[in-house]
Every structure is written in C-alpha cells, then in structure tokens.
TrEMBL record:
The keyword Transcription regulation applies. Pfam families: HTH_1, LysR_substrate. Residues 29-86 form the HTH lysR-type domain. Belongs to the LysR transcriptional regulatory family. One of its GO terms (molecular function) is transcription cis-regulatory region binding. Keywords: DNA-binding, Transcription, Transcription regulation. This is HTH lysR-type domain-containing protein.
Length: 323
C-alpha cells in the first residue's frame, strides 16, 4: 500500500534558474514504512518492533530510514539498544497509529465480504458456560443453516481470544472478567447471567441435614472447575480441600464418591431429574452464585451475513435461558 504526498517546490533563484510557478511532485510513503515507524515508537527498539510485527530487524530499520529520507527529518536517536523518538516523531505517532488501525480494519472488512459462503462455524466455550445453552444455540443454528458444520471447542479465554484474533474461530462464549477489555480485533457483548447452586449426591450426609452452613461445606471436599481460578470467581471456592474437574458430567459422577460442587442450574436440572444429584440450601447464602457471560466475536467476520444471523440466534437463546 502506498500513499501519495503532495510536495510543493516554491520559486527559487539558485544558479540563475528562475521558476515562476510551483511544481507539484509526488513522494511515495508506503504503509510498511508507517507501520514500522509505529512499531518502533511503541516498542522502543528495532529488535522489539521486529518481533511485534513479525519482520526482520534489518527490514524494519530500512523502512524507518526510508521514511526519514522522504520526510527529511530524523525520527529516532539510538541510545544503546533503545530508539528514542524525536519531537517530530512524537508529533507524527498518533496519526501513524490511527492510519495503521484504519488499514487493519479495512483489510478485515474486505476479506470478510469475500467470505460470504461459510461452510464451517467454529465456536469456543468455557467450561462455566451451561451445556444446555450451547445445545440450544447449536439447535437454532442447525435449523437455519442445516449444511453448516459446527465445531465446538472448549478453550479458556486466552486461547479463545488468540483463535479469534487469527480468524480461526468465529465466536467464543466466556465468563466476563472484571476490568478486562477484549483485544482490538475482537468485539464483545453481554449474554446475560447464569445462576449456580450447591449440589451433592442424594446419599451425601450434607443432603440429610436440615441446615447447611458455609462452615459445614468447608469441612467437606469440593469439586471445582480450574477455570474458577482463571476468571477470578474465587467466591465459588469455599473448601480448603478441593479437586479440580473440568467437566460438569464428570463432576456429577464424582459426587457419588465424595464432596459437593457448585453447578449451574441449567445443567443441574437435567441431572436432578435423573436422580444423580440434589440441591441443598446454604443458610449463609441469601442469593445464588451468579456468573456474567459474554459473547466474543471476530471483527474479521462481522460483515458476513451468516455470522450476523448466527449472532442474532445466539442473542435469542441467551434471552430465553439466561437472566
């Protein structure tokens, strides 16, 4: 990508050459030069910038030097291994950052328009997202797009975000994180909240008690999802003796051996009907545990008609099943 910069040569009298009018020339500034300048400014060195944009250090330096030649001004002064920006560079940086962002957005939209006919939809989900919600979303999408292959991948937030940024996934359903915003290439909206309760096996001694306190729970083993620690939902972890289990179905089976667990009500309802678990009321808790869920999506596909419709179907499912 190249940008044309108007360059005016004003009248001069050098060597007797009199120019009576302005001469309009063209100086070519490339997107790569601007992007390399931005990267060096943000990273503080040519080596770090090269790693950030996946290019050779020599290539990055050559682009910056070429830009300096075009502009006729130094952009950085080298102090040790650091590239210190000049006052001129500081003035240009906000515009360079904006230009790079606009170019990336343009590229994402341009490619997404070409991908109208999706044959496969990849959805990531966290273990804390109710499987009943996932099943409902699956059914809604399959009914509207019967020939669309759905790939459901259980991933934590970090790995799901990486897939979305690389265009390898279309959606990710995740618990929200406090004070954490999605990366620039990812959009998000709130799906709703999911309620959780304390569940045990029907034969558990806890199920036979008229009143169960948090102190009582702390004296029994707890089955906990490891993602509770990743998302910061530490309020769900009560007992000092706990076992990490990354499957609701396995959690239900293990409750037959020991302990108790916090399970979302949507999934627990099915197991309760089968007589596999029982919900107990905890006297210390006024309200159920609540986890807020968010849908993350890649900006690279947001203009695709199929993606737009799937997003609408997911919203409808959330409105029906979540609070």
């Amino acid at each position: 990508m190249q940008f044309r910069v108007a360059h005016f040569l004003y009248p001069s009298h050098n060597d007797g050459d009199i120019r009576s009018s302005c001469v309009l020339g063209e100086i070519m500034i490339t997107f790569e030069q601007v992007n390399c300048f931005r990267a060096v400014y943000e990273e503080g060195s040519y080596s770090a910038a090269a790693r950030a944009i996946d290019k050779d250090r020599t290539t990055v330096r050559e682009h910056v030097l070429a830009l300096e030649d075009v502009l006729g001004e130094a952009l950085f002064s080298i102090q040790g291994k650091k590239a210190q920006p000049t006052h001129f560079a500081s003035h240009l940086y906000p515009r360079a950052r904006h230009l790079v962002k606009q170019a990336q957005d343009f590229e994402s939209v341009a490619f997404s328009i070409q991908q109208v006919a999706l044959t496969q939809l990849t959805l990531c989900y966290d273990i804390q997202v109710p499987s009943q919600l996932l099943a409902d979303v699956d059914q809604r999408i399959s009914e509207v797009f019967p020939h669309l292959t759905l790939r459901w991948l259980q991933r934590d937030r970090e790995h799901a975000s990486t897939l979305l940024e690389k265009g390898l996934a279309h959606f990710a359903m995740m618990p929200t994180l406090r004070d954490v915003s999605p990366p620039e290439k990812i959009g998000a909206f709130r799906m709703g909240s999911c309620g959780y309760g304390v569940y045990v096996h029907p034969t558990s001694s806890l199920n036979g008690s008229e009143q169960v306190s948090i102190q009582d729970l702390s004296e029994h083993p707890q089955l906990v999802s490891s993602n509770v620690f990743i998302t910061g939902e530490r309020t769900m972890q009560v007992s000092n003796q706990y076992h990490e289990v990354n499957s609701v179905d396995l959690t239900v089976r293990l409750l037959g051996n020991r302990g108790w667990a916090v399970i979302n009500h949507l999934d627990a309802k099915i197991y309760e009907q089968q007589g596999l678990i029982s919900r107990i009321k905890v006297s210390d808790l006024v309200h159920d545990y609540q986890t807020s869920l968010a849908l993350l999506y890649s900006f690279a596909f947001e203009s695709n008609p199929t993606i737009k419709k799937c997003m609408q179907l997911i919203r409808e499912s959330c409105r029906e099943l979540l609070t």
